[in-house]
Write a structure and sequence with these properties.
Oligomer: single chain
Shape: globular
Helix content: 40-55%
Largest sheet: 2 strands, antiparallel
Distance between the termini: 41 Å
Length: 120
């Protein structure tokens, strides 16, 4: 069957009002960090408070677009060493990703889950 809506890049002029709304929501969360991701958990936008999370990353390649926030969160060269309750947070994220994979079977997410499960 044909998709109900065609896929367009977020830079498409017709999506400008939606992106403006996303930016308003992100800005409204300041001074707390907030971010918006796509269906593959790639960073779409973030507010200014996310800056400290991006600082002093041991593995700079994690910050090359597209930045995958799950990889960035759980990779030993990302923010994982700074997460006090990493075991619980890791379990939560992997469980959520597994549910998403069970529902969609998206090959990109299946590979991401496989990769993330190899991290310590």
């Amino acid at each position: 069957f044909a998709p109900s809506f065609s896929e367009r890049p977020l830079t498409d002029a017709s999506l400008a009002p939606a992106m403006a709304a996303v930016e308003i929501v992100l800005k409204g969360h300041e001074p707390f960090p907030a971010l918006a991701v796509d269906r593959h958990w790639n960073l779409v936008s973030a507010n200014a408070a996310i800056g400290p999370f991006l600082a002093n990353v041991a593995e700079p390649s994690l910050l090359k677009p597209p930045v995958n926030v799950l990889r960035f969160s759980l990779h030993p060269g990302g923010v994982a060493p700074r997460i006090v309750n990493l075991a619980e947070w890791r379990a939560h994220l992997l469980d959520r990703l597994k549910h998403q994979n069970d529902a969609t079977g998206d090959p990109v997410l299946v590979e991401l889950e496989r990769e993330l499960r190899t991290y310590p």
